[in-house]
Amino acid sequence: MSNENKTEEMEDDVLNNIENQELEQDDSSSESADIEKSQELSLEEQLKEDLSKEKDKFLRLFAEFENYKRRTSKERMDLFKTAGQEVIVSLLPVIDDFDRALKEISKSEDQEMFKGVELISNKFKETLKNKGLQQIEVKQGDVFDAEIHDAITQIPAPSKKLKGKIVDVVEMGFKLGDKIIRHPKVVVGN
């Protein structure tokens, strides 16, 4: 072989080696690109998972806060409904005194005094009624209910119709909203 042939062969070998190296680099770069894509996908998936976990935490926290708001507002409303309960309970004997006073004044002949006391009594009762106080309606002949009425004594029934029923109302009962704050005291026939 001549030197020219050898040189051409060597050049061909070098060119082939360069081409092979380029091909290998392309292969390795595509492999690394594939690896990077898989890492990107896994990174993307991981970020999606993290995002969904944070969304779930947020929704749970939001729901818990809403429940807290609802519960505290309900407690506050209940407190407002019965906030004046102590004051109103302490005023119930005044209502009883007005009723006794009206009963006694009606026996006298001074109608002007009776009208004046009656006006004050009605105004007082209306004011308490506006604050949520309701009188429990109880009358002779009503069926005795241990949940509502407070039996202070039992007497022999004056008639067969009044057996197990209310014979007399000693003290009226009152409700504040739906809650009974004083049970009516009654006498029951047996």
Description:
By secondary structure, this protein is α+β, with helices and mostly antiparallel strands. The protein contains three helices and six strands; from the N terminus they run H-H-H-E-E-E-E-E-E. It has helices at 3-82, 85-105, 111-130; strands spanning 133-136, 150-155, 166-171, 173-176, 179-182, 185-189. The protein has a three-stranded antiparallel beta sheet with strand order 1-4-5. A hairpin with a 2-residue loop joins strand 4 and strand 5. It is rod-shaped and about 155 Å long. It starts with a helix and ends with a strand. This is Protein GrpE.
CATH homologous superfamily placement of the largest domain: Head domain of nucleotide exchange factor GrpE
Which whole number gives the mean pLDDT? 85
- Compute the number of structural domains: 3
* CATH fold-type name of the largest domain: Nucleotide Exchange Factor Grpe, Chain A, domain 2
* CATH class wording of the largest domain: Mainly Beta
Please estimate the helix content.
Answer: 55-70%
What fraction of the residues are assigned to beta strands by DSSP? 15-25%
Which properties best describe this structure?
190 residues, alpha+beta, Nucleotide Exchange Factor Grpe, Chain A, domain 2, 3 domains, three-stranded antiparallel sheet, three-stranded mixed sheet, 64% helix, rod-shaped, GrpE_CC
Q: Short summary of the structure?
A:
The protein is an alpha+beta fold. It has 3 helices and 6 strands.
Break the fold down into its secondary structure elements and pairings.
Layout: H1 3-82, H2 85-105, H3 111-130, E1 133-136, E2 150-155, E3 166-171, E4 173-176, E5 179-182, E6 185-189
Parallel strand pairs: 2-6
Antiparallel strand pairs: 1-4, 3-6, 4-5
Helix pairs in contact: 2-3
Family: Belongs to the GrpE family.
Region (Disordered): 1-47
GO cellular component, one term: cytoplasm
